[in-house]
User: What shape does this take?
Amino acid sequence: MQDFFFIAFPYIALTLAVCVGLYRYFSHRFTYSSLSSQLLEKRQLFWGSVPWHYGITLILIAHLLPWIFPGAARTVLGNQTRLAVLELTGIALGVYCVFGIAALIARRLPNDSPARAVTSPMDWILLLVLAYQVLSGVGIALFERWGAAWYLSTAVPWLRSLVSLHPDAATVTGLPVFIQSHFISGFVVILLFPFTRLVHVFAIPFEYLWRPYQVVIWNRDPQLPQLPVLHQIAASPRPIPLNPAEVQRRQLLTRLGILVGGISAAIVGIPSLAFLLGLRKVPEVWRTLGAADSFQIGHTVEVSFLDPTPLPWSGVTAKTAAWLRREGPDQFVAFSINCTHLGCPVRWLPNANLFMCPCHGGVFYKDGTVASGPPPKPLATYPVRLRDGMVEILTTPLPITTV
Ligand code: FES
Assistant: This one.
């Protein structure tokens, strides 16, 4: 089931978003609109639209940047002060968004609201999903703090594995259901994207930034002074006849949309289908960590190695790390660097002989068992072997959190 939610469903959502989005763009281009209701009641819209759009844009950027630049994000978040400032800023933006979406929903609730008259069932579904998304995000930030840190070692590897078409959900399947639901509802938003007015994000009028200002003058029909503008428009429909050349052009664009959508679906659909059918396994590769003699008995050191499926464009993210402990002449143990609570990287404190998780205070003994704090189980370990005097580690995806 988790394979479905964290591997198949994201691909289904993305495939539909791309295919239906392209189809709609080429065949029904003029339905790409936010169906602005600004003319209906501007004041209420302001209190919802401004906090929502500013808040959600910044939050999306904050989610995307660590995903695209994980190495830089790790450096930035490695400092406790910066982490605290970013965490508080994120919570403030989340609350700002909650206020915005609440106002956007509230303005459509009254029966006599003009905005309600133009609200479709899909609008309600979208508003509720978006409301859940921001509420759950704020809840996670409040109750599972330091999300910026553990997001890097849980969601980021999973999302990058989806993009690289080597899906691997091991880092998220053990997270608390509440956090999982936040990830899944994010993909529900993507799924709803081409079916709702959300498509307007691709119709952002950037040219407004540099075009000369324009003066808008009301031009109401004097015969219908009492009716709202949309009712006036509806009261005097003027169908525009299409000429054959226009029909042909539209047919061509529709076919083009289907073709591009089909190719996109194949690109993301075939690898994910192969993975789900078991035709494609996540590879396990032995990686050399160094000569056995370079590790001292009784010491724990950090070792880094390439993950099993590095891609040419992975850059620094192809490297992963573990804690290696030499127990005896031929005995080595390699611990996962990720805490079993929410996946934050644990640190080795040589003076205390303990692993410490900086996120929520989890502590592990030198053998990886839990000493205190929220981690529910010992640190995961990698298989290790000695070969020709070299220490090797089996790089395989580890379920790093609670399962
Ligand atoms: S991630 Fe919460 S204690 Fe480690």
The domain at 2-223+228-237+247-263 is CATH 1.20.950.20 (Fumarate Reductase Cytochrome B subunit).
